[in-house]
Write a structure and sequence with these properties.
With 489 residues, the protein is mainly alpha-helical. It is built from 20 helices and three strands. The chain has two domains: 142 residues, no CATH class; 327 residues, Orthogonal Bundle (Neurolysin, domain 3), CATH 1.10.1370. The chain is globular.
């Protein structure tokens, strides 16, 4: 075997072990007994120690030194292995193991604190998480910006300054649009009770309609919807609310976007660095374009209205046009995952600023709730009513995902560019969407983006697919056109 072959064989085993760790995380969020949290923390720490040892194995450096790429794909494999190795060796094994143990325990404590509306019960373990992540960030940054080192894990080759510049461009137009929309009469909302079993049955139908391969996946329930896995085992979760079926349906479509990306990657890349989404921003572009530009479009909601009428009967909406307005209703609210397209990015900007301050030491954990509540009141004009609607609503900080939040808005920006290109490439898309047929759209995304996996850098894969450098203008124009039309602006 050549050095390249030996390295790739070793990498496949490492990736397989990482997939097992991911499956433990899926189990923890879906079916694990509550009392197993501490033991699961030990299990996760043990497998993380094995993974860290393999990822920092000196043989990797030797193989990288001697390996010759046989082709463009091989060169990309080496590039990604080298990047991951260089980052891994900067983090001490004991620190990686400690982070795995504490974040596993913190996840359970967050869920309980959220259920109990008890911020104080969560803050001590969050203090531990933040301290460990600051230590990790310092090791990675090597004297540079700690938060930039965090972002690099989720959106390679992107800095917080670049993100802030994009957000500064978006914020004024989003605030102006939000104000104009909320000054207009509010569309009618759905009403009634929607049985969980019926929601989950229609949720399954939606997943299939958007191309989710159930032979290589499954849908379960979780407190916070997520997608997990890659290749031939990609699982998603959703959640239900008896009075809000859209929570279930659009969480499902969103997570299917993530899962379809993983399922759509070239099978030849399986269990290699290229066999997964290239970044969380690109990943989010898929979930957001599935959920919003396609799933909330006038054409697709016409089909969904018929499906809901068939399942639930009369739910207070007279026709498809009224339903389209209800689906895209802009209203005051607290929850990021339930936010409309106009306000969603404002939620992300809040989190971006707070977590950057936490990592840089400009904000202490003890002051987080007050800082959150002050910023929310300033951005949205009303006060947070309870912790589960405030700083306890998201799972991300409990599991140490600092640097992750801004990728949600980057994903929206990327989705705006992709949607503009998709509409140009498939101008007759709406007649298919009216029939619940998304295959032209999802097929275009699979061919132009998803199949490449990690072959190209994040911004490069968006540029290749959309034909333009990624920027916020297509997204902002889409939002202003759509909601301007809906609200008569």
């Amino acid at each position: 075997m050549t050095a390249f072959d030996e390295l790739m064989a070793f990498q496949r085993e490492t990736t397989a072990l990482a997939q097992i760790a991911g499956r433990l995380g899926w189990d923890q969020e879906t079916v694990m007994p509550r009392g197993a949290a501490r033991q699961r923390g030990e299990e996760m720490a043990a497998i993380e120690a094995v993974l860290h040892s393999r990822r920092s194995d000196p043989r990797v450096a030797d193989w990288l030194e001697r390996a010759e790429a046989p082709c463009e794909v091989g060169a990309a494999q080496l590039r990604e292995i080298r990047r991951a190795y260089d980052r891994t060796i900067k983090v001490p094994a004991d620190l990686a193991k400690a982070i795995a143990r504490v974040t596993s325990e913190a996840q359970g404590k967050w869920a309980q604190a959220r259920a109990d509306e008890d911020v104080a019960a969560f803050l001590p373990v969050l203090e531990e998480v933040v301290a460990l992540k600051r230590e990790e960030g310092a090791a990675l940054a090597r004297g540079g910006d700690i938060y930039d080192a965090m972002v690099e894990d989720y959106e390679p080759h992107t800095t917080s300054a670049q993100i802030a510049e994009i957000f500064d461009t978006m914020r004024p137009r989003l605030v102006e649009l939000r104000g104009a929309v909320l000054d207009r009469p509010m569309p009618k909302a759905v009403s009634g009770r929607f049985a969980e079993s019926d929601q989950l049955r229609l949720s399954h139908k939606l997943a299939v309609a958007f191309g989710y391969d159930m032979d290589r996946g499954r849908v379960d329930k979780a407190v916070h919807p997520f997608s997990s896995g890659s290749g031939s085992d990609v699982r998603i979760t959703t959640r239900t609310s008896e009075t809000d079926p859209f929570n279930c349906f659009y969480s499902t479509i969103h997570e299917v976007g993530h899962a379809a990306y993983e399922q759509g990657i070239d099978p030849g890349y399986a269990l290699t660095p290229l066999g997964q989404g290239v970044s969380m921003g690109v990943h989010e572009s898929q979930s957001r374009i599935y959920e919003n530009q396609l799933g909330r479009s006038r054409a697709f909601t016409r089909w969904l209205f018929d499906q809901m009428t068939e399942v639930f009967g009369d739910f207070g909406i007279a026709n498809a046009d009224e339903f389209y307005s209800a689906v895209n209703r802009v209203d005051k609210g607290y929850i990021r995952t339930e936010a409309d397209e106009v306000q969603y990015n404002l939620h992300i900007m809040l989190r971006f600023d707070l977590e950057r301050a936490l990592m840089r030491g400009d904000l202490q954990v003890a002051d987080l709730e007050a800082a959150w509540n002050d910023r929310f009141a300033a951005d949205f004009g009303y006060a947070v009513d309870k912790p589960s609607n405030g700083c306890l609503q998201d799972v991300h900080w409990s599991v140490g995902l600092f640097g992750y939040f801004p990728t949600y808005s980057l994903g929206n920006v990327y989705a705006g560019c992709l949607h503009e290109a998709l509409r140009g490439a498939v101008p007759d898309l709406d007649p298919q969407l009216v029939q619940g047929d998304t295959s032209r759209a999802t097929g275009w995304l699979r061919e132009n983006l998803q199949r490449h996996g990690g072959l190209f850098a994040p911004r490069d894969v968006i540029k290749r697919a959309s034909g333009q450098e990624p920027g916020p203008e297509p997204l902002l124009q889409y939002l202003e056109d759509k909601f301007g039309g809906l609200y008569g602006l």
